[in-house]
Amino acid sequence: MEVKAKKALGQHFLTDLPTAQRIADTISESELAKACGSEKGAEWGALPVVEIGPGMGVLTDFLVADGRDVTAIEIDHESVEYLGKYKKDIKVKEGDFLRLDLNEIAEGEIALIGNYPYNISSQIFFRALEYKEKIPVIAGMLQKEVAERICSKPGSKVYGILSVLLQAWYDCEYLFTVEPGVFSPPPKVRSGVLRLTRNGRVELGVDEKKFKTVVKTAFGQRRKTLRNSLAGMITPGSPLLEDAILKERPERLSVEQFIFLTKALG
User: What string of pLDDT tens digits covers the 266 residues of the chain?
Assistant: First the structure.
């Protein structure tokens, strides 16, 4: 039995086993120890794993082989039937990750991983951010441009909303590039593998909803200076009007500067 890739679900099944092994290794104890230190490596490398979009379980097999407790979330009923028949050592939850409550899927902290569907990968990361206290580690593969955007630094042309919001809470690493030929069917774009690990930030010091609003509003008109893009949020006579930060464009600001800006907007 094979599962047919469905264009409507953005499915491109990974077929190359060495690549699947490399992706699984991104959340192994040894690799996390290199990235975060031995203590975090041991802690996070033993976490239960939630895999998004396992398809026929190529990546899943390597996660299980590493001794992890794996729960797979799959929206495609045909894949769910396949996994239920051939992958007896995992738990399978049929449903849309964007609509499920992760607290009902797994207790405590988890590591999140997947070969994420290109068409909703950004939405998946925004959704994962809602569970940042539950997910200290996120890894996996998505469209190269999106992976690069998430990991980009201030000053980059691709630095944007997702970069700032995720980097406020995670250290983001772009790990390696994957070519189209290792998929069935091959996508028209290259893929990138990344890893996100929770940084030491406990709180922003500002209202999180307002922080998101400031970031999204600023990048909503990214070609304009902050003085123009945030004009509707600045109180007349505010001391902020004299600050040089308003002369900048949003892609120049660090997470800390966006936090400062949110505070200054009152």
Answer: 677 777 777 778 899 999 999 999 999 999 999 999 999 999 999 999 999 999 999 999 999 998 999 999 999 999 999 999 989 899 999 999 999 999 999 999 999 999 999 889 999 999 999 999 999 999 999 999 999 999 999 999 999 999 999 999 999 999 999 999 999 889 999 999 999 999 999 999 999 999 999 999 999 999 999 999 999 999 888 899 999 999 999 999 999 999 999 999 98
CATH topology assigned to domain 208-264? Helicase, Ruva Protein; domain 3 (1.10.8)
Angle at 102 between CA 96 and CA 106, to 5 degrees: 120
CATH of 7-198, one of 3.40.50.620, 3.40.50.150, 2.40.340.10, 3.30.1360.120: 3.40.50.150
Look-up: residue for tokens 């400062």? 260
For residue 152, give Cα distances in angstroms to 126, 134, 203: 16, 24, 22
